[in-house]
Structures are given as structure tokens and as C-alpha cells.
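Protein kinase domain-containing protein, pasting as requested.
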Amino acid sequence: MLIEAQSIELADAATEARTSDFLENPTAECRPHERGFLFVPQGTKPGPCPPAVFFMHGARPPKTTTEEAHLYLTPNQLCGTGNHSVVYNAEWEVPRSLIVEDVICKKCVFEKGIEILVAEDGPNGDTKDPKWLQETGTVVETAHEDPGLTIANKDAIEDENGECVSYDIEPPSLKVSRKYNGPVRVIDTGVQWQRAADGNTCKHRTGEPGQPLSPSEPPLTARVSIVAKMSLGYDYHLKTEANVYQKFPDHFYQHFTGYNIIAPLQDPVPVWALVPQFYGYYLPDKTIPPSFWKKGNRDGKGQNKGADDGEEKDGTSEKADRLKYDYRSPLMLIEHCGETVCNILDSMSIDDRQHCASLFLRLHHEGWLHNSLYTRNILYQPGPVDASPMERAQKATKRSDLRKTSFRLIDFGRTEKIQDRSLRLWEEDVATKTFKVLHDAMD
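C-alpha cells follow.
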């Protein structure tokens, strides 16, 4: 958490430095995109032109750390047991601001910017400062010709005129783009970011997805489904795994929409997030004595006593319980990513199998060796991950190439940085064989 907070502070400082440099010499080329929007008046033609306008808005509010969150954990939600740990499905209650991002309304910025321009220059620009009329900027127009996509029949079937039959998948097109270069006129609109988590949004965002339809205040907190991992008595694997999660590069957690070819595979695979999101590693507070809960009567009332509270009715069993539960495990909280692929491997498409194998290969390309290459260490769930549970359930019934299944690599208790290339090659060989993606095994 400390590392993440420091990286956020560094990013904010870099943004402020870019903004200061820009204000000393405001040009379109060096404008800070995160602080405003460029406005080129409609009807501006390519070539020399008066300076464009940069409508500046407030800086994004700094992110703060969350001091308190509530974890709801029950033995009834056990979802996995291993040689070194146990895993539970859990609910995490956190402030809504941790989930719902602050937003900047582009329409508000432009409306306020135009209002300021009219006030300064007059409705028809009669009072505009002459320096903003000089043609010191340039609009560059670029034309890009797209040839389109045409597929010819491989059997070269000819029509009645003797010409080969072809199919136009995408017709040719000409795309024209314009870009402004040169000095800009800075207008500080004073528009600030909106706290969407509190429901305090402008008229433009009311009714948008994720925004309340009524003026009632949203709850201050929200519950999310996560996974809580606990270690067995005095086992070091969980601590090692938490350290590995924190050493992984940022792109292991990021979602990209494109595809890539990961050697030694020869077909493109998605480059979505590689591992579950990591929500922290928490140690028990040893200054707080443990509590013991015992089943009570059928009315559901039980006993909840601290280790030093009350008198022991059965000294032998009480002491045995205390010895049994003397060890209090740390907690590692990560994203809930579905179920293991063990039971569906034989029915998976070649695309999904290559996707699974590529997770290990991407790990290798960053210099890591997993050291526990089993199908149980890959989880899957219908995607996309930003869709609602109902939408995911609907897509789960579709073909594998339509449901956008998400895969994640887990269990890094033995993972380590490697220098020996032979170990990497050995694990790559195991990965391609496990998921049947060798050329002689492809469908």
C-alpha cells in the first residue's frame, strides 16, 4: 500500500510540473491532457490560423488511503484447501470512493469556457485582444487511405463474365484528420472534478450508467466479492506469495484490449490482466486477544469471549481450544476470479488453451518462474470483467469465442526470479504440453 501511495504522489508531482512548464509557454504540443481540453473553433480551415483555446479545469483530487474497511468472513464460504493455505470467498465493505472514480464533465468545461470567452471577447468577438487574432497557429490536415479488406475465394471460382469472385468485407475509405499546432490561449474555467461516489454529479451525468436516477444520497460504503487466503499454522508460503504480488510489474494487473504473440506460440492471444488484483497482506494485531465463539442453544445465541474473559467451565477443553487456535493467520486479499480450469480443460477451444498457456509464458518474459505449473492454478470466469454478473451469466451460455472468458494465473508461493534459461524452457515445454498447444496436438 505504501509503494502504491508513493507512486501516486510521484505521478501527481509530475503532472503539476508539466502544468507549470506549459503555463510558462502554452502550446498545443506540450499541453497537459489531464488538466483540460483543446478547443479549435468550428470552421477553422487547414493552414495558418489564430491560436486555439485550451479550456483548463481543476486538478484531479489526490487519492487518499483508506484507514478502515470491514471484512465479512465465514467458514461456510470455504472454496479451496491446499497443502499450505485455505481460501474463502468473502465480502469486503469499503468506502464507495475506493470503487467509484471521480469524474470531470467535458460538457461543463466547454460550457463554462465558452461563457468566459463571450464575456471577454463579446458575442461577436468585437472586444477580443488583437494578439489572439494573429495567425500564429497552424491546422495540419492528414488524409489516410484505407484500402479495406477483400477476400478472394481460394478455389478461384469465376462468375459468368470469367472474373474471379471476391468478397468485400470492409470497403475502401478515406479518413481525414486535423491537428492543431502552435500557441494556445489558456482559459481557466474553474470547473472541478465531481465525486461520483457521493452522487454529487452535474446535470449532464444524471442518468448515465452507474449514476443515480434520483437525487437520494447513495450509501457511503459498498460491498464487493473478494477472496481471502489464510495460511496453515506457521507456514511461510503466504508471506512469500504476498511479496511476489507486490513485486510484479503494473502491466500484470492491467487490462488491454489488443492481442499479442507470445513466443513460442505462433497465434495471437489476448493481453488482459495476468493475475488477480492484489488488495493487501494483513497481519493480526497481537495486542488484541483472540475471541472464541462457541455454539449455544438452538435459538442461535452463542458465547463470544475474549481469551482472558470469564471463567472456564471446562478447563481441559478450554485450554485445548486456546492451544489449537493459538496461531492466527495473516490474511491476503485478492480479486475473485472464478473457478479452476481442471474440469473443463478437455472441452476448451484451442484459443482458450493457448490463452492459458500464454499466462505462464508472459510470466517468463518478465523473468519469473512459476514453479507450480498445474491446471488448478488457472482460474476462469465468463467475461468481460467489467460486465455485470447478469451479463456474464448470459454470455456463459454462448460459444467460447463470444463469451470473452477471463483467465487468471494464481498461487505464487513458490514463484521466483530466474536467471537460468534452461528452467524457463523446461516450464514452457510443460505449459504447452499441459494445454495441448503444440503443433502436432493442435485441432
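Note for the archive: The longest helix spans residues 2-24.
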